[in-house]
Design goal:
3-stranded mixed β-sheet; alpha/beta; globular
Amino acid sequence: MTFSPDPNKVIPGVVAGAVNAASAAAKQPSVKRFVYTSSSAAVTLPNLDHEVTISTDQWNDQEVEKAWAPPPYNLDRSYSVYSASKTQAEKEMWKFIKEQKPGFVLNCLLPNFNMGTILSDKQATSTGAATKAIYETGNTGMAQIPPQWMVNVQDTARLHVAALIDPDVENQRILAFAHPFNFNDILRIMRELYPSKEFPGDIRGLGRDLTKVDNRPGAELLKKFGRPGWTSLEETIKDNVGL
């Protein structure tokens, strides 16, 4: 993953990687199902303090347009380029299915901010590092990440498996949006869970992501495979901290 602001250095490679994987799978008659990990960024970015309703029919085309605008490629374009890479790659996957008609079913999973259990301290943990850093060092530097929806990384994994083996899930986009949050929610929960430990005060002016999304299909799929639905933010923080 790269946050280069130059679309030419990011998007073609991401698209090619996705299509090459699909092409390779299509050559193997034994491959019957293919799950592609897309991103919430292929549908929307956080909608700070204004309501927007999203669905699986939508694409983040406005970020694609921003990403491919003429240079200069300044750093403030980085997340548009990232979002555009996710949007265009997933679109090409669905185009591949339509045009090439491979012998497999495609499902795409679109997770938002993943947090939860970190299996190894030696692994890059992306968004999961933010919560652990708050607990271990009180560092809220990653709170510059805007308020948005989160999902427990194990729920993300379970949904990948469900999309792979459940015959009722066919040619679907699954939105892995569990709960909206901001970093003050994380601080509040940590104070409740670990009262003997000191944490920074609330961060001023964070706002809220007011995106509206029907996350029931993902929850129902989790229930089908023995879970109560989406893992709560509190349980996810416990998982993330590892205590």
